[in-house]
Amino acid sequence: MMNGLTELELAYFAGFFDGEGCVSIARQKKSWGKKEQPYFHRLRINIAQKDPAVLRQLHDTVGGTLHCNRGVWKWYADDAFAVEFLTKLRPYLRVKASQADIAIEFTKTKKGGYGSITAEVFNLRENYCVAIKAEKDKQYA
Questions:
Q1: What is the CATH number of the domain that holds 90?
Q2: Where is 92: in which H helix or E strand?
Q3: pTM value > 0.85
Q4: 86 in helix, strand or coil?
């Protein structure tokens, strides 16, 4: 669905995401594979708002997941969909441009599935996780 967006829509959603969005590489506990790798890394992007109007428009236009919890609406997307979204918006991003770049590079270490990975790939993903956090720390310092 992302292919049908106009340049104006891409720029609008990029500006909204720059101001209100979040890019994260989360560590999630796992119960399979190598014991020395107790978690795996997942890319997630999200936007949270009390007023759902723009989030509904975003959801209706590009997809993702939209839900409300205690009066706060949240739109989010994970992994492949998240990187597609960031890649399409990247030319228009300013505030979150470096975070998008890190997220896009991170996904190049993923080949699908949840099987075991080498220690080298695990460490590379962990470095991307730390790099995203460092970018956020710089942004909000």
A1: 3.10.28.10
A2: none
A3: yes
A4: helix
Q: Which helix (H) or strand (E) holds 54?
A: helix 53-62
Task: Please check whether residue 127 is in contact with residue 50, taking contact to mean a CB–CB distance below 8 angstroms.
Answer: no
What residues make up the domain containing 26?
2-139
d(CA 59, CA 98): 24
Does pLDDT of 136 surpass 70?
yes
One-letter amino acid of 44: R
CB 121 within 8 A of CB 37: no
Q: How far is CA 22 from CA 33, 86, 90, 114, 123, in A?
A: 29, 11, 14, 24, 23
Place of tokens 């109007």: 53
How many domains does the chain divide into? 1
Spatial distance between the Cα atoms of 23 and 68, rounded to a whole number of angstroms: 19
Report the relative pairing of strands 65-69 and 72-78 from DSSP bridges: antiparallel
